Amino acid sequence: MTRPLSVGVAGLGTVGGGVLRLLRENADLIAARAGRPITVTAISARDRTRDRGENLSALRWYDDPLALADDPHIDVVAELIGGSEDPARALVLRALLAGRHVVTANKALLALHGGELAAASEAGGAVLAYEAAVAGGIPAIKTIREGLAANRISRIAGILNGTCNYILTTMRERGREFAEVLADAQKLGYAEADPAFDIDGIDAAHKLAILAALAFGQPVNFADVHVEGIRAISALDQSFARELGYRIKLLGIARQTPAGVQTRVHPCMVPENAPLARVDGVYNAVVVEGDFAGRIMLEGRGAGAGPTASAVVADLIDIARGRATPVWGSTTHLAEAPALPMSAYTGAYYLRLMVVDRPGVIADVTCALRDAGVSLESMLQHGRSPGETVPIVLVTHETRESQMRAALDRIERLDSVLERPSLIRIELG
Ligand SMILES: NC(=O)c1ccc[n+]([C@@H]2O[C@H](COP(=O)([O-])OP(=O)(O)OC[C@H]3O[C@@H](n4cnc5c(N)ncnc54)[C@H](OP(=O)(O)O)[C@@H]3O)[C@@H](O)[C@H]2O)c1
Fold first, then answer.
1. pLDDT by residue (tens digit) across 84-103?
2. Is 48 touching ligand 1 by the criterion CB < 6 Å?
3. 109 CA: nearest ligand 1 atom
4. Which of 161, 235, 307, 408 could hold 301 in an S-S bridge, CB 3.0 to 4.6 Å?
5. Counting beta carbons within 10 angstroms of the beta carbon of residue 295, is it exposed (0 to 12), middle (13 to 18) or buried (19 or more)?
6. pTM above 0.85?
């Protein structure tokens, strides 16, 4: 067997701890598959005194994670600190430019600085691998970059954030409101103390930007991802979704069309029998459509120490075998298609309004839709309560987002419409 692959691990939290444990517990199997042992020889974290549940006394400790990039005895740096800026960014750039391979789980860093990192990887002749950055234990990156490498990919759709999927699933199953379920998710450790990154869709958008760059062979473009989170979803919408035969999911969707690439993250009404609608709880899923392979769906755990460590170590095994793939899957950009704005999106919509139940209200709403060129497929109203506030639900035929927005502007201004309308796009999954 050849010389062990020497790894420096920066960040010993959930993921870093998982990586140390996995490399130790499955050391023999990993060495057999990699063709040589993979050994952690140096580590870095903030607090040297914290008990990490492992004996780390034989490893070189660095208070400054950047020093790992300069350690001549390290072949690979595993960046498991997180955050789009320093020290993670500086560490990855420094290691790559010094010719040291890097494995990272950091989606924010890749989504915001993917071009700069790819240039550093090329300049230093070092691999940058990031299987763990998208959908945790699901091998989504390998599937697109390797398994589907011969395909023109037209569309990716995914449930890319386990926290959101857990909240939406629990709201649906228990008939509870968003804020209550979020508070419980925080107590259970399924949501962060500051949950904004997850529930506002930003984490999913980071992952979608990475998948889109890889699938369509173009530079990472996080700035043009349209992002909406799940804060506005109510128990009432969940109950109407059920009645209409849908489930509400936060999806990340990237589509390549002749006019350009559209990337968007927002809540969707997905037909309840679609495979993506059936992915519940903290699970993630990724659907990829290739011109020769057809449609592929992967499902699994998108976070947690075990699944994420599994993805990090898969990358380490590739590096130990001497496998090198271009950071974004192709040696040159395949295309630089323009980013399509959301106003160009076309689809069907679910629209829920809270209105005063009085004559003429429905006529005012349908006039606003008609004048904007939006045609209705169906309408739901339960019973009558004259003078009271009642929900009405409208489902439209396929229409352009710009037309729907024009209608909504007018509807929101009607004095019979009492709350901000709830608008959810209908997606086939
Ligand atoms: N958690 C998941 O399930 C998951 C899934 C997929 C991807 N990821 C990604 O994996 C990365 C790590 O996530 P995590 O959940 O493991 O985070 P975490 O539990 O918060 O751990 C972060 C680690 O980084 C260390 N650290 C923070 N700032 C540092 C600094 N300035 N210098 C040196 N070390 C520093 C911390 O040190 P101390 O321990 O001493 O405080 C800690 O060990 C992130 O990019 C995240 O997005 C996580």
1. 999 999 999 999 999 999 99
2. no
3. 45
4. 307
5. exposed
6. yes
